[in-house]
Predict the structure.
Amino acid sequence: MSTIREARHDEIPELLPVLVLAEANERALRWSLENLSDTVYRMDDDGALVGAATVRWGDDEPEIVELAVATPHQGKGSGKRFVGWLVEEARRRGKQALLVGTANASIENIAFYQRCGFRMHHVRPDYYWYHDEPEIEHGIVVRDMIVFRMALHDDEQPTPPRSRARRERR
Ligand SMILES: CC(C)(COP(=O)(O)OP(=O)(O)OC[C@H]1O[C@@H](n2cnc3c(N)ncnc32)[C@H](O)[C@@H]1OP(=O)(O)O)[C@@H](O)C(=O)NCCC(=O)NCCS
């Protein structure tokens, strides 16, 4: 059986090997746990750790800070299920929207978050300034964070592209 729940503080060391998949720089990960997120979640399947996520709930638009599924469990729908659970939790808390960011070069994550229903929102330029060595994915240097946003309220529905195009032609 698959479960998702808030992790206790004393469980965090057990989650680090999974969270490091989302933030490979361990120093940055520890700093992030201290300063950027306020809640850590774990996903287990029949007693085995499947994934972990960290969230900063404080703001009206909270943010998933790290999200990772353990390598053997990737590609089986667990990441999307985890995101869906966090989206429901954000709704339950009455939040306006949920944010999540990933690196400009992380093409797979850019696909993943859009398949989970997020839309591109803004860029945090030079977010990854703290990398000791340049990190390269798909031949692209990791520099900026692309922030995705999911609106959680019905009164904030996007204008459908067709009607927008018609309005712009007028
Ligand atoms: C990113 C991550 C959380 C995705 O979790 P996952 O369990 O592997 O993904 P899922 O199986 O739930 O996939 C959900 C959807 O995303 C798509 N997707 C997942 N990985 C993808 C990839 N590498 N390329 C393109 N699409 C991908 C799937 O096709 C699926 O689409 P569908 O539901 O429309 O069919 C996981 O791969 C991971 O932990 N990666 C390492 C850590 C990381 O990079 N975290 C994000 C940092 S911001």
Q: What stands out?
A: The mean pLDDT is 94.
